[in-house]
Amino acid sequence: MLRRLFWPAGLALLVLVYFLGHPVLHLWSAYSNDEPNLAPAPHGTLNDAGRLSETPIDSVIHLPADSVAATMALRAALRNATATGRRISIGGARHSMGGQSLYPHGLSVDMRGYRSLSLDTAADILHAGAGAIWSDILVYLDPFGRSVDVMQAYANFSVGGSLSVNCHGWQPDQGPIAATVEGFSLFTADGTVRHCSRKSNPGLFSLAIGGYGLFGVILDVDLRVVRNEAYAPRRVVMPSGLYGDRYASLISSNPEVGLVYGRLDISHGHFLGEAILKYFVRLPEAPALLAPHNARMDKLTRAVFQGSAGSEYGKGLRWKLEKRLEPWLAPRAVSRNQVLSDDATVFTNRSGGTTDILQEYFIPEKHLSTFIAQVREAMPAHPEVDLLNVTVRAVRRDSTAFLRYAREDVFGLVLSLRIPANEGGDIALAGAALDLIDRALALNGTFYLPYRLHANAEQVLRAYPNARLFFEAKRKYDPGEVFQNLFYAQYGHAWDAGE
């Protein structure tokens, strides 16, 4: 009799342990093995977020907060560079990954001290020092009931860096950040500070947004801000090939949607075959005040993400949790500022043996499903490159920046890739990049320039047909080529006569 009673209970316990024990053990292993083991950067060097651009630097100029003192420090650096033949590079949070903020044996301007903030509430214009970090801006704007119009998905980037790469975000029916910039002051190679806007120095305005610091130092920025709002999170799961159609029916021209992005399944069993469209619908209530993030939830999120690296089981588990558990954990309402305040360090790779690199491809809306199929076909040919994440964001046509990646309405596919943190890993990544760039170009797409400098000159010119004119304009405004970085060293003279 007892055996008959205990047998079903024992079987149920075994089933419970099997289905819950394995995920718990996997996540615990990811959490317990996630100890930082990064060696400090050697003295006299700087690196960027990709950790593959270690560069010797002669001197770092920490820009002071006061605008007059900052201008004097920049003029002193310019005189030094001119007298010694050295170059000046510019860095904020250094989230670019191909040396766009670095130049060997040069003078490096650290913008992070230049971060003052003030708000014109009547005009909804934020005046920000270029070294200000978006997380600080959200904290500053929140009591005013205001929010950022366009920024990256994560808040630990600098304003100047965001303008220099012409970032985009997950705001629906919006182009890159360029559309929200009213103007900025620019310290140029002749030692003057020029105000740049669509009416004043419009050429420099267009060139410096998305200009990677090659036209001077962006100092003070005037940005359009919007009202903070309360949102209700929503989501739809679908085959990835239907993403464009569902986006058009649910999001496009829907005034109730405030933020939106998509995610693709990277587990090998259904590789890139399924998608989640996540969007936030406006609520009539007042938004809650910005609050610190839930530390426990951040730890769980990190364990789930890190547990997917190099693990097919982990990738499948992550997708199941995102698809099935996340809806139960989502709050009923969340403020716009709270959504925008996410911190990329939750996902930062702290291992010394590997590093995570981003790539992004911008594909015309009509070719989205074709490119997803192209990525599905291409990635197995590059087994040394571990695909950790694919996020999808819509970007409307850019009519402001000179070197523009969104020449029409596009979807941006952001790929997060883990590789060995060494030359061999970078070479393997280059193979994948060259392959995917060609596939994007064949669909009249483009690729983003703030990452590893793997594209060849022909690919750059196909994606950015005015690149030659861009670099010619750089030398017009900076004939001594004093503002430089590894990006300019790679491509700045790629199309000179005879080369």
Explain this structure.
This protein has 499 residues and is α+β, with helices and mostly antiparallel strands. It folds into 2 domains: 169 residues, Uridine Diphospho-n-acetylenolpyruvylglucosamine Reductase, domain 3 (2-Layer Sandwich), CATH 3.30.465; 232 residues, Alpha-Beta Plaits (2-Layer Sandwich), CATH 3.30.70. Strands 15-12-14-13-17-18-16-19 form an 8-stranded antiparallel β-sheet, with helices on both faces. Strand 9 and strand 10 form a beta hairpin. Helix 1 crosses helix 7. The longest helix is centred in the first third of the chain and has 31 residues. It is globular, with a radius of gyration of 24 Å. The chain starts with a helix and ends in an 8-residue tail after the last helix. 44% of the residues are buried. The N terminus is likely disordered.
Layout of strands and helices, then pairs:
Elements: H1 2-32, E1 45-46, E2 55-56, E3 59-62, H2 67-84, E4 88-91, E5 107-110, E6 117-120, E7 125-129, H3 134-141, E8 146-148, H4 159-165, E9 181-187, E10 193-197, H5 202-208, E11 217-227, E12 230-239, H6 243-250, E13 257-264, E14 274-283, H7 295-306, H8 312-329, E15 334-335, H9 336-340, E16 354-364, H10 368-378, E17 386-395, E18 410-420, H11 423-442, E19 446-447, H12 457-463, H13 467-477, H14 486-491
Parallel strand pairs: 3-5, 4-5
Antiparallel strand pairs: 1-2, 6-7, 7-11, 8-11, 9-10, 9-11, 12-14, 12-15, 13-14, 13-17, 16-18, 16-19, 17-18
